Amino acid sequence: MDDLNLHSPAELNAEHPSDTHTHTTAETRTTAVVPNAFAQMGLACELLAAVRDLNFTEPTAVQLRAIPLALQDNADKPANDLLVSSQTGSGKTVAFLLPVLHTILIERQALEQQEAKERAMKLEQAKANGEELPKKPRRKNPTDTRHVKPAFPSALVLCPTRELAQQVARDAIDLVKHCKGLRVACVVGGMPYPLQIARLHNADLVVATPGRLLDLQRSKQLHLSKVQFLVVDEADRMLDLGFAEDLADIHKLTELRRQTMMFSATIAPRIQQLAARIMRTPQRLQIESTKEQKSNIKQILFWADSQQHKRKLLDHWLRDTTIDQAIVFASTQIECDALAEDLQQVGFSAVALHGALSQGLRNRRLQALRDGRVQILVATDVAARGIDVPSISHVFNFGLPMKQEDYVHRIGRTGRAGRDGLAVTFAEFRDRRKIMDIEHYTQETLKAEIIPGLEPTQRPARAPSHEPRRGKPGGGKSFAGAKRGTGFKLRSAARS
Questions:
Q1: SS3 of 188, please?
Q2: Contact 369, 389 (CB under 8 A)
Q3: Cβ 179 vs Cβ 105: under 8 Å
Q4: Residue 234 and residue 87: Cα distance in Å, rounded?
Q5: How far apart are alpha carbons 212 and 231 in whole angstroms?
Q6: Among 11, 31, 169, 351, which is disulfide-ready with 186 (CB 3.0 to 4.6 Å)?
Q7: Could you report the per-residue pLDDT of 292-315, keeping only the tens digit for each?
Q8: Order of strands, edge to edge, in the sheet holding 2-7?
Q9: Which fold has domain 2-288?
């Protein structure tokens, strides 16, 4: 079951940059001006102020191409529907949020000006007639159940996972902090929601996973008849998770909308079929190849003889003192829990994250990662999208992903905000076909390396280049409590 969460700009003080951008230095921040490229797009000054606060110096490729197209709207021609292929970390969240928020803001300001004129006319008329001046209505407490009314949002962003929806909502909150009265709600799962439903009141933008959104609509807590903008984020993943029927239902409920934008890692035939059903002759944008986008992430491969060998390789790597924070990806929920527990037992600051945990616990563990209270997050592919923590310097693929595109999303958790990243993959020789599929998908060859003393005794069918690493990753130092060379206890794992 899904649920919802709402935040106002004041409720989020931590910095949550949306996607990969070049950040200014501390000296530049004090005298930073609005970037010309963003200003030339005609965005509202409130949004430009938020862009400046987030230290976004130049638009990324997807922002530069998508924002002007998304903003085109006039009486003679409806707004452009966009079908955008853009990989993780390309800045696509800002690319669809800015034009949507700009239009909502401009229309709200026009409505407020009209209401102000009407009120001024009433005041003048009351004065002329010698009547008592009408008082401005008092603001009602939206958390009071007597005042709770169904929400009629203007914009809707659909995401495949709770974590991604929450991240998109945080980015939206950062962008509207100078926009008076513009509210953002996040509809996700696993949390109690009576109070949350009250906070949904007057939300202009709703970021949601499809399940709870439709539940709220069916219970008449939320109406979609006034949605003007529909964004489908990570459409490929949405179809993988079986949301096709939910998307069809939401399409019918928002048929009067004037713009639809769809973002996907690739424009595969199934994405084109979905676009044909819910969009009006969309303009297609192909933004950057995977190889071009991941040039700041070094990718290396270590072959292993067994699961036990892989754990020794991981144990060696986690002693690297240059690691700020890291994500270790596991293939299954059982493997994820076992690995996190073993890392804790040998002294690492580690927690597990997967779909079987309650949403409250998942939120607390993600917040601990963002706050720096956790150094290592052991996760399934639930964390492959939607986690934006710039201090993640390393990603370890302990278990290989089920789909090749998930590999790209996994390694995209590092190398963010203009930083360099390192993605390390451990694979047994029986996994060589999966490695070849990943290489074919990314159009890159994973360079195989070895660690002296931990070399594999077997050899893969296609001999990779084995070049020994010079020295130890962390100069031989270890985290407090870790015992050198012990590896981890082998445990069985079942597919989640």
A1: strand
A2: yes
A3: yes
A4: 9
A5: 17
A6: 169
A7: 556 788 999 999 999 999 999 999
A8: 2-7, 184-189, 205-208, 155-158, 229-232, 259-264, 82-86, 283-287
A9: Rossmann fold (3.40.50)
